[in-house]
Each structure stands twice: as structure tokens, then as C-alpha cells.
Amino acid sequence: LRVRRIYGKVGYLDLPGGGRMPMSGLGMCTGRHQEDTAQEVFEYLMLGGRHLDDALAYENVAGVGAGVRRAVAAGIPREEIFVTIRIPPSVFGFNSTLEAVEVVFKESELDYVDLLQLHSPLSTVPLPGTSHPELERCETMRRCHEETWRALKQVLGTGLARHLGVANFNAEQMEFLLSLGGPPVAVNQLEFHPWVTSQHRDVVRWCHQHGIAVTAYASLEVFFGFKFGLFKFPRFARRSLFGAATPSSPALWDRPFLANWTVDRVPAAEMEPISQRLEAIAGRLNKTVAQVLLRWAVQQNVSVIPGASSPQHIRENLELFDWELADEDMHFLEHQQPENLTTWRWPFGPHYLEGRYFDEQGVSNFAGYPAGLQYHDVFRYHKKTWLTARSWLLSLGAVCVTFLALCIFCCRRRQSRANVKKD
Predict the structure, then answer these.
(1) Which of 178, 194, 229, 415 is 20–30 Å from 100 (CA)?
(2) 260 phi and psi angles, rounded to 5 deg
(3) Poorest-confidence range of 94-98, 236-240, 278-282, 413-417?
(4) Do residues 305 and 216 lie in contact, with contact meaning Cβ atoms separated by under 8 Å?
């Protein structure tokens, strides 16, 4: 994969099959309203950015499309803009994938997208009576991948997409897609920063060896999240709220669904020297810590897609290509401890890239799931887990409200008695 310069200072990667992808983009997992998204995209493009990373699951495709059209009307050539959109695993299957692609273009009103990706290798089959019943014929996960990839190849043939890719796939899963023939896997997107697992690093190396470009997400979340305590949930609260595990039933806290949203905070004493070293590197280079972390990925031929809303942060995220980190700085970041800190943990924890959580018959062999769980029951299992957690929290809230009401009642009654005695 060759790194070139394009659009001023921003580098880009040559993609297999032709074409190129800017190495610094704007991640659209923001949760903003469509109009706010459109304005953010427009400002980003006018400031020189050219890579937009979005997904149907983010529910802002319409805003991204509106922002792109507004920028094109302002004079930015559409061919300079690289738009990525991912298809969620909830629609895996041939017909349902084509329907999802129709939704993409209906909402975005774009003539084409530059990259269509599968959002995750995990496919769940809808329950009877829900949408996309044709997914019932996906007897195995591999069959689901095959049917979905066949649908994307058809979209590619119509010219509505320029490249096809995946996200969160391991080497074995990508090898299977490559074995189907046809267009190559152009890009694999996965979490990548100095604190990822060895599995993440192995997948990046495998992709580069096979000519597949890599995009990193969550480049900044782990460091700043742990530094400022955003991932804090005391262990004693876990156990008291969710109970202990038994051989037949893992503790609710340890079940995969909740493990994604609650992560141990790294002790401040452990993060402080890392923070000081990063600040020293940034100060020496007259850059920010965020730029140092992004440059670490870029210097390994990995594109980055950090979120940003202010013009200053957008410019900083684009100014990564006219300087570089010294070898000792790269070595320091490459050998970070603790390892295995990832933000995307659903549903298999930080080692989800190891794969093989379901056999070809779709039966779970992952310790975090009950024995024998079928992959088409995963959604139902997580829904039940979430409902159980919500019931616990609602019950706790009800107890607190009842206790508060009782206290108020007792205080008022005592006050009333005191007033009667005075009279």
C-alpha cells in the first residue's frame, strides 16, 4: 500500500482494485440530528477534509448526504470526497442487504458511495414475524457472509459503490470472502491504538500483507477516556447490583452485553507517566497529544477517522502528514501497558477478533454465553439480559423513591404532632 499526498497536506492510501482513500477522515458516530450533521460535514469539507465515515446504524446518513451536496454546490468536486457507509449485521442476507443499500441512497440522495462495508462479522437472524424473514435461510454465519457479500458485489457492478470492505473482521473471515472471487476486500476497519490487543495488531499486519487498507476507529477514546475517568464503574457496585456468577449462569455483569458499556478504569498512577510522556512528545513536536496518537497510526499506514466538531480540532486532525514521530517515540507507543483496553467489546470482550465463537452449525462455544446458544438467538439473549438489568435498576429506583417518600411522610407526621402539642 502506497501513501501519497493529496488535497494539500493530507495523505492517502492506494486501494486494491484502483482508487485512493484519504488517511484522515471524520467519524460520524456522533448522535447528532440530521441538520447538525449536515452542517458539521459541510464545515469539515470546507476546511479541507475529504473522508467521511458513516454507517446506517448511526442514523444520520441523510445529514451526511446533505452536507456533501451542500459542499459540492459550494465548489468542491464530488470525486475528491470519499464517503464510507457500513451495512449493519442485522440485515445480513442477499435481499435484505440490497434493501439496506436502497435505504442508504434514498436517505443520502448521493449518486454513489466510495466504500460500502459490512459493519461487523456477527450476524443475528431476526425472530419470526420481524422484518427480513428471508434471513431465516442463513443456516450458518458463513452462509450469511456469502449471501451478503454477493449482494454487495451486485451493488458494485451497478456503479453505486466504488469499493467494498469490512469492519471488525479477523483474517479467517476475510480469507473466506476473498475465496469467493470477484472484487477484493479493499478496507478493513477496526479499533487500533497503542492499547489494543495482540489480535488487533496481527490483523493489521495480515491486512497489509494482503494489500488490504486499514482504517482505525477509537484512536483517541481509550487514552482520554481512561485519563479523565470516563470508563469508571466501581467493581463493588457491579457485584452488589448484578450478583455473583454460577457455573450455569454467569454474573449479569460478566455477560457480553453489559461488558461492552462498562470498563474498569485504569488506576491514575498507571496512566500518569504515560500521559506525561505523551505530553512531552507533543510539546517537543509542537503538536497535541491527540495528534501524536493519530500520527502513531498514520505512520503505520493506517488511516484514522476521529470525530471533531470545532474548526481547530478538524485542522489538527488533518495536519498529520508533514511531520513524523521519532523511532523511540514509536517504540514507546508500540509497547504500551496495560494491553487489551478496547472500547468496542460487544459481544465478545477485547478478544473478539479471535473469532470462532460459533461453529458452522451456529452453536456458541464462547464462555461468555450459555452453553449451546444458537447464533440466531443472540439478539433474544441480549434483549433478555438488558431487560433483566433494567428491571434491577428500576427496582432499585423504586426502593429509593419509596424510602424517600416514607422519610418525607414521617417528617411531616412528626411536625404535625409537634404543632398539635404546641396548640
Answers:
(1) 178
(2) -70, -35
(3) 236-240
(4) yes
Identify the burial level of 52 via C-beta atoms within 10 angstroms of its C-beta, where 0-12 means exposed, 13-18 middle and 19 or more buried: buried
For the chain, the farthest-separated pair of C-alpha atoms sits apart, in whole angstroms, at 94
Does a structural domain hold residue 316?
Answer: yes
CA-closest candidate to residue 29, choices 382, 310, 307: 307
pTM: 0.74
* Residue-by-residue DSSP string for 158-197: HTSEEEEEEES--HHHHHHHHHT-SS---EEEEE-STT--
Kindly state whether residue 242 falls inside one of the protein's structural domains. no
The C-alpha cell 458494485 sits at: 156
Number of domains in the chain: 1
H or E segment and range at residue 390: helix 378-422
pLDDT over threshold 70, residue 234: no
Element (H, E) at 116: strand 113-118
Q: How far apart are CA 337 and CA 194, in angstroms?
A: 9
Residue 355, pLDDT > 60, answer no
Q: Which domain holds residue 187?
A: 3-229+288-342
Alpha helices in 244-352 (DSSP H): 256-261, 268-285, 289-298, 311-318, 327-334
**pLDDT at residue 267 tops 90:** no
- Asked if residue 129 belongs to a domain, the reply is yes
Is residue 370, in this structure, part of any structural domain at all? no
Q: At what angle do helices 198-209 and 171-179 cross, to 10 degrees?
A: 30
Mean pLDDT throughout 326-350?
Answer: 68
**Cis? peptide before 128, omega within 30° of 0:** no
Q: Give 98-118 pLDDT, tens digit per residue.
A: 999 999 999 999 999 999 999
